[in-house]
Amino acid sequence: MGVIRNILSSRSNKSGNFFSVLNKTLGFKPKNVLHYRKAFTHRSLNIKDEKGNAISFERMEFLGDAILGAVIASHLYKVAPGGDEGYLTKMRSKVVSRKHLNELGKDLKLIDHVETNIPKDQFGANIHGNLFESLIGAIYLDRGYKYCKRFIYDRVIDPYVDIEQLEGQVISYKSLLIEWCQKEKKDFEFEVYEDTGNDEMKHFAVKLWLDDKVVAKARATSKKKAEEKTAKRAYYALQNKIS
Amino acid sequence: MGVIRNILSSRSNKSGNFFSVLNKTLGFKPKNVLHYRKAFTHRSLNIKDEKGNAISFERMEFLGDAILGAVIASHLYKVAPGGDEGYLTKMRSKVVSRKHLNELGKDLKLIDHVETNIPKDQFGANIHGNLFESLIGAIYLDRGYKYCKRFIYDRVIDPYVDIEQLEGQVISYKSLLIEWCQKEKKDFEFEVYEDTGNDEMKHFAVKLWLDDKVVAKARATSKKKAEEKTAKRAYYALQNKIS
């Protein structure tokens, strides 16, 4: 690994804060940062390991895709005890759709860390999702299945995977909630403010006021997402009253 | 879980030694045997859990399939550092082909443990592979990813997954070895004997003699497999001399 380690390490000068951004993205300390460097190495760099094998994040995508599939499968198995295998397969394909993975990768700004010899604007739209998968592959190689599971719960399942929403029964928790407030003649307000805190990324925080009480709070990388997350939390908190 | 536990547990009388066979098949002690009972429950039994959800091994197949895919992906990623993602995908689909999974399930005689209201001879050929997947699903629920990995290495990867064989470069290690012996004018003999030992299943043991020395030994559930496994071990042990 000597040669490749040297080549990949030298990039730390260029990419500067790769390590510290990585820590924040992952939510834990990587053991071997080399795996993550590989996860952001495009084949156009023509880096080879000591045996002459090309290094490229595309191989790691294959690995990350499989791990992601397993974690999502086990989550759906548990939360949808009434769904048969056809249903579970359909729900999973919604969660791991290209569109969704691209959004996830874009939110984490993974493309900023790619090392490539071709201009980044020439990558197709799927680069974001591909990098998200290769990052999961790197986590697996670095820390194993458990850390992947934790990362996927933090970044995919907790914020975005909701059976009712996946089924299309609930399009938006925000509109559900607004409807209910109007029917019940309650005053409500989504109070939104920018709250970047210690994060690299811009974050929005939202408080939902019902009459004169805060009933839910959430943070996310966009105003819309933060509102939806808050509404979802409020929905579950108020569930007995709403449905 | 009260009702379902009672229904499933009562089967222990019928299936008798389910638990002891399970121990041998798994290579470790299950914590919660209920998961394994579910993994062998056909929907024709019409068992429902306390919330009215149908119990059937088909849901567990979905889970097992995903875990198997992840373990095989990570193995291939490691053993084929020169293969790109297309290659890795192709190799994986060979390992987890229906045909291969059916063989694995058949070898373990999983069908013997199925509880069903329809005659077993009416199941299609894929029942064996399906049960193999549902068994992996049960292991995951009972003991987590690590135990699945261990089981898959024991039952799938170590005995059957060989990159050269998957690529079709090596059709049979036995014929490779015989060819070499003939060229080198070596006496060889595959000594085969039945060796069931403590296993439920009939096993064959093979010793490969080269001139007057035993160069490799292996056990498997068929004579042909045991010979091939022995030849593969001898091939790697003698690799410098052979290639």
TrEMBL record, chains A, B:
Active-site residues, as the UniProt record annotates them: 65, 133
- Spell out the GO cellular component terms annotated for this protein, sorted alphabetically and separated by semicolons: cytoplasm
Subunit record text: Homodimer.
Extract the InterPro entries matched here: dsRBD_dom, RNase_III, RNase_III_dom, RNase_III_sf
* EC code: 3.1.26.3
Task: Give the enzyme class.
Answer: hydrolase
Recorded hits in SMART domains, A to Z, give: DSRM, RIBOc
Q: Which residues form the RNase III domain?
A: 19-144
The reply on keyword Glycosyltransferase is: no
Cofactor(s) required, per the database record:
Mg(2+)
User: DRBM domain spans which residues?
Assistant: 172-240
Q: What is its main location?
A: cytoplasm
The record lists Mg(2+) as bound by 61, 130, 133
Which terms under GO biological process does the entry name?
mRNA processing; rRNA processing; tRNA processing
Recite the UniProt keywords alphabetically: Cytoplasm, Endonuclease, Hydrolase, Magnesium, Metal-binding, mRNA processing, Nuclease, RNA-binding, rRNA processing, rRNA-binding, tRNA processing
Q: Which gene encodes it?
A: rnc
* Pfam families hit by this protein: dsrm, Ribonucleas_3_3
CDD domains according to UniProt: RIBOc
Q: Which GO terms describe its molecular function?
A: metal ion binding; ribonuclease III activity; rRNA binding
Protein known as: Ribonuclease 3
Q: Any idea where this protein resides?
A: Cytoplasm
Reaction(s) this enzyme catalyzes, per UniProt: Endonucleolytic cleavage to 5'-phosphomonoester
Q: What does this protein do?
A: Digests double-stranded RNA. Involved in the processing of primary rRNA transcript to yield the immediate precursors to the large and small rRNAs (23S and 16S). Processes some mRNAs, and tRNAs when they are encoded in the rRNA operon. Processes pre-crRNA and tracrRNA of type II CRISPR loci if present in the organism.
Family stated for the protein in its record: Belongs to the ribonuclease III family.
